[in-house]
Design brief:
By secondary structure, this protein is mainly beta. The protein has one helix and seven strands, in the order βββαββββ. Helix content is about 10%, strand content about 20%. The strands form three sheets. Strands 1-2-3 form a three-stranded antiparallel β-sheet, covered by helices on one side. A two-stranded antiparallel sheet has the order 4-5. Bound molecules: zinc ion (2 copies).
Length: about 130
């Protein structure tokens, strides 16, 4: 059920000489992932798509469930889904909050001290 709207990640246009540059953002964390070079086409959709296909896309993973384009930090490669759809319950490789790499078995992020485990909405609901 990939939503047709998610043809590219979230983006922002940066007007530039002779065309536009495109900044692409992770649709889950909202983090800036990359900014393209300058592109110009006679219609905006084509221009965006060219920038996306030739540069943006390479830096993203698509969630096979919700169809969002996300950064690898919030992507669960074992199941090809974003961590929103497929939480990394067993062991966290990255901190969802600050993106720091986690050591095997860490329960709390050593950088921001937030919980690394994503599982079941829970008892300890505080994040
Ligand atoms: Zn997802
Ligand atoms: Zn952290």
């Amino acid at each position: 059920m990939i939503n047709e709207k998610h043809k590219t990640a979230a983006y922002k246009i940066i007007p530039s000489q002779g065309g536009n540059r495109y900044s692409f953002f992770c649709e889950l964390s909202g983090m800036l992932v990359c900014t393209s070079g300058t592109y110009y086409a006679d219609n905006p959709e084509k221009e965006l798509f060219t920038a996306w296909e030739s540069e943006g896309k390479n830096n993203f993973n698509v969630c096979h469930r919700c169809g969002r384009w996300v950064d690898s930090v919030v992507y669960n490669p074992d199941v090809l889904m974003c961590v929103d759809c497929a939480p990394l319950e067993e062991e966290a490789k990255y901190c969802k909050h600050c993106g720091a790499r986690a050591k095997n078995g860490d329960i709390v992020c050593s950088v921001c001290e937030k919980k690394l485990l994503y599982g079941g909405a829970g008892e300890n609901g505080e994040i």
